[in-house]
Specification:
Number of helices: 14
Helix content: 40-55%
Number of strands: 10
Distance between the termini: 53 Å
Structural class: alpha+beta
Number of domains: 3
Order of helices and strands: HEEHEEEHHHEHEEHEHEHHHHHH
Strand order of the largest sheet: 2-1-5-4-3
Shape: elongated
CATH topology of the largest domain: Alpha-Beta Plaits
CATH superfamily of the largest domain: Reverse transcriptase/Diguanylate cyclase domain
CATH architecture of the largest domain: 2-Layer Sandwich
Radius of gyration: 31 Å
């Protein structure tokens, strides 16, 4: 593993601020690639070469004891089982020796942190390109198949497409990414990407129970960590890889219905009325809602929607609706009459109720 010059320079400057000594970083060839003494950058350091070969700390007793050295201490920097470089502190032995182990540990922590961040960024970019490719191609020609193979997509596996969005608008993409990265750190069962606050997930399974369990845990994690309550739409769970483009579309329809119904998870194959509503064109929805609800004052729309949906959920029972909403029977009757007066449609009539119900659902 090679440490970049930029990272090495950042490390030696941070270390100098802590111990107030000149600090050098040497690569595996014994070359000083970063230093708080600019004149030493690029020079060969014979002591560092010895440290690389022996994997042992080395005290330099006097200047030029080894080629290009000054008195001080040089310590091997390791990543897993590999010695990847040497950190050196210039100064009197008694002064610098006490800093050796702590500087070594701090350097290794900074390098590992940078390495993990780089891996995370690389996975993000790879998953983004993979999911974008799958969402953009209805059919796969040879070029697309080659591109998918390079992006670690295994066509022999079963996949399930999921699209998620929080109930309240939230646009901090990095915030959501951080949460997903944290959750999936030790879980390679899913490719994912984020567009603003919308997440696109590709699970490497077609078992509905597995996907449901994973999403419930993810939703709990996102709420606990980010205070975001996500809703998820899930594609049909079938082994038809060539339909992944369509599966993402179906997952988006399921998500739309999950938001309308305020459900955490909706499977596309469980949708009924939602199949119709989520595929209507925006122009048609707007025209229908305006026709049905346009006369209702905005400040009263939520109250009248609540009474209508509760009335329907209780099989058009006034008494049960009153119990659900904790209101008086006269209040319930009054609101239903107001809805009829505003719209011209009577909630007590089954045909009119269905029209009003659809209008309120589409208004979301």
């Amino acid at each position: 593993m090679n440490v970049s010059v930029a990272l090495a320079q950042e490390i030696v400057e941070q270390m100098k601020q802590i111990i107030n000594q000149e600090v050098n970083y040497m690569n595996q060839k014994g070359v000083i690639i970063a230093s708080t003494d600019p004149d030493r950058i690029g020079n060969f350091h014979g002591g560092a070469k010895t440290v690389i070969e022996t994997n042992q700390n080395l005290i330099i007793e006097y200047d030029q004891q080894f080629t290009g050295t000054k008195k001080g201490i040089n310590i091997p920097v390791r990543m897993e089982t590999e010695t990847i470089g040497v950190i050196g502190i210039t100064g009197e032995k008694e002064e610098v020796e006490k800093y050796g182990e702590i500087i070594k540990k701090m350097t290794e922590i900074l390098i590992k942190e940078n390495y993990l961040n780089t891996l995370s960024f690389q996975k993000r970019e790879q998953d983004r390109l993979l999911i974008e490719t799958l969402r953009q191609h209805k059919q796969w020609d040879e070029q697309t198949k080659t591109q998918l193979s390079l992006l670690d997509f295994d066509r022999s596996l079963n996949y399930t497409c999921v699209v998620g969005k929080p109930s309240s608008y939230f646009c901090n993409q990095e915030h959501v990414y951080h949460g997903l990265d944290h959750y999936f750190t030790h879980n390679q069962s899913c490719h994912y990407t984020v567009l603003q606050d919308t997440v696109y997930l590709l699970f490497k399974t077609n078992h509905a129970a597995t996907v449901t369990n994973e999403l419930n845990k993810l939703n709990h994690f996102l709420f606990h960590e980010l205070k975001l309550n996500y809703h998820f739409g899930i594609s049909p769970v079938e082994n038809l890889a060539v339909t992944i483009y369509q599966h993402f579309k179906q997952a988006e329809h399921a998500l739309t219905w999950a938001l309308v119904e305020a459900q955490s998870i909706v499977f596309y194959h469980d949708m009924d009325l939602g199949l119709l509503i989520t595929t209507l064109k925006t122009e048609a929805k707007t025209a229908f809602v305006d026709k049905m609800l346009g006369a209702i004052p905005e400040k009263e729309r939520e109250t009248l929607k609540e009474i209508l949906l509760t009335y329907g959920a209780n099989n058009k029972s006034i008494n049960k609706s009153c119990e659900t909403l904790f209101i008086h029977k006269n209040t319930c009757q009054y609101r239903l009459n107001k809805l009829k007066n505003y719209t011209g449609y009577d909630p007590k009539d089954i045909n009119d109720y269905v029209k009003l119900y659809l209008a309120f659902i589409l208004d979301d």
